[in-house]
Amino acid sequence: MLDDFFVRAIVAGIGVALVAGPLGCFIVWRRMAYFGDTLSHSALLGVALSLLLEINTTLAVFGMSVLLSVILLVLSKRQTLSSDALLGLLAHSSLAIGLVCLAFMTWVRMDLLGLLFGDILAVTRNDIVVVYAGGGIVLAVLILIWRRLFAGTVNADLAEAEGMKPETINIVFMLLMAAVIAIAMKVVGVLLITALLIMPAAAARRLAKTPEQMAVVAAGLGAIAVIGGLFGSLEWDTPSGPSIVVAALFLFLLCHVLVDAIMRARAPREGKAP
Question: How does DSSP assign 91-142, residue by residue?
């Protein structure tokens, strides 16, 4: 069954979506989109490092994302720069350094577009194993820390007072983000990872009534975006990674339009006297 490259792409894409959806909910709640973008940009530097040291690409990307997270934590405590300026500095510098390093490696033939925008149609069985094994670990850890992470998201001071150690949980959350970026890079690429994290979660926000519902709906919408984007890519011969993101954007707009239409339809009826 998995001999078909298109089936492998769908299976891998759904695996990434199932992990990215719940994690993306916390990115939306915490307004950390730019932080996720910064980590994803560092992935290219991780690729360059993996080629230079001849180590596993996924591990190198994960390690570089973790290193950048630590640098962000250290620099943010010094407060010499605003957080958005610091994120912008690290995001673009890590991306630029990665591109320059790859340019110097003249002995390596690298599909740069595939790194930037993903190459999901080229995933292998080993890639699928990495996606589902790594994604399973991420989801298991997320479920374990869900209550404490959500409490810290709502009110960090109250979570600290109740002994939930929000700073430690935040570090774990950053590690989970780094892991998702590492396993998702081949699917949607360095530049589009954040979109897959944010768009399904933002769309699910209009449909769900509880945080848990939002996480499940986000995962489902992400899977639908993957399937729709891949079939759209096959039909119109468009790049697969960007097509998935466009499908996610379409779902986001559709959810907002439908919810607004339903609310407008209910408003007159709710306003009538019994």
Answer: HHHHHHHHHHHHHH-TT----HHHHHH--GGG--HHHHHHHHHHHHHHHHHH
